[in-house]
Write a structure and sequence with these properties.
The chain has one domain: Spore Coat Polysaccharide Biosynthesis Protein SpsA, Chain A. Helices cover 37% and strands 17% of the residues. The protein is globular, with a radius of gyration of 18 Å.
Length: 293
């Protein structure tokens, strides 16, 4: 979702498949995005999954948009761009819901403007699923596809009425419970939800429940999703994964170490919060995993 350099040459599909997935982004690589105008449809010949694909991208990021069109167009996948704006300069009413005191406790620093814009952008993407009343695919524009992308979406779409949110990225933690294993894929329940929001499928029932708890911005959007104790939803993932981030250069580029607030009381609060959520999230995920698909 941020402006970056276009690679000189796209890697062949086989090379992409063999490439080792890059590690999840550090919080310092928060992307800049915030929806502003209606999505614009770029026509392509639809094939494979019936799930609609939405790509969050800055209107000014022409090179990125051209690369996105090439990546998806070469696979004959239709998609729509969701116009994004720079969270540092744009205004959106949802940005007024920023709770700085809570964010400080969760991250021991204030939010970067781009993180706030990114948070709001994903909320509005979730609202798109509710508006359409159908599951959708949401991609940030620094994605790369694997050869399993289309087949993975077909597989996930079979369970659209049983799940809330399915991550399409590589598993960071392998503490999972299996919901289904067939057709060369597995649908797993994450007991420790990973970070990063490069690609996922969200369903309208899941979007409604997540939106009910996400209006106040207390942490980055991927940390909100990880805190299942707060929103109560079961987060799934598909294996093998269908996308991974390319980690293009960020226009934010915050230095987390220099941004961190000092103070014994704040440090003690953060330690208490991290400890509480570690166990609360695990208990929530275990309870949901045992009683839900």
């Amino acid at each position: 979702m941020v402006r970056g350099r276009r690679p000189a040459q796209d890697a062949p599909a086989a090379a992409v498949f063999l490439q080792r997935p890059l590690p999840a982004r550090d919080e310092a690589d928060a992307v800049t995005c915030c929806l502003r105008r209606p999505a614009r449809h770029l026509p392509a010949t639809p094939t494979g999954s019936a799930l609609k694909i939405f790509v969050i991208s800055l209107p000014s990021s022409r090179e990125r948009r051209a690369l996105v069109a090439h990546k998806l167009g070469s696979r004959k996948l239709s998609f729509e761009f969701i116009d994004a704006v720079d969270g540092r300069v744009d205004k959106h009413p949802y940005l007024n819901n920023y709770d700085e005191a809570s964010f400080l406790v969760h991250r021991r620093r204030r939010a970067a403007p781009g993180e706030l814009g990114c948070y709001v952008s994903h909320l509005l993407a979730w609202e798109k699923s509710v508006e359409l009343n159908e599951p959708i695919v949401v991609l940030e524009d620094d994605f790369q596809l694997t050869p399993d992308f289309e087949a993975g979406l077909d597989y996930v779409s079979r369970f659209a009425d049983q799940v809330s949110f399915v991550r399409l990225e590589p598993l960071e933690k392998h503490t999972v419970m299996t919901s289904d294993k067939s057709a060369g894929f597995s649908l797993v329940k994450q007991l420790d939800v990973g970070m990063c929001m490069t690609g996922y499928v969200i369903t309208p029932q899941g979007a409604k429940k997540l939106l009910a708890h996400a209006r106040t911005i207390r942490a980055p959007i991927d940390l909100f999703l990880k805190y299942t104790f707060d929103h109560g939803e079961l987060i799934h993932a598909v294996v093998p994964h269908g996308v991974y981030p390319t980690h293009e250069d960020s226009v934010i580029g915050i230095d987390v170490r220099n941004q961190r607030e000092k103070g014994f009381v704040l440090g003690l609060k953060r330690f208490a919060y991290k400890t509480f959520y570690r166990f609360a999230n695990l208990f929530t995920n275990l309870a949901n995993g045992l009683r839900r698909f």
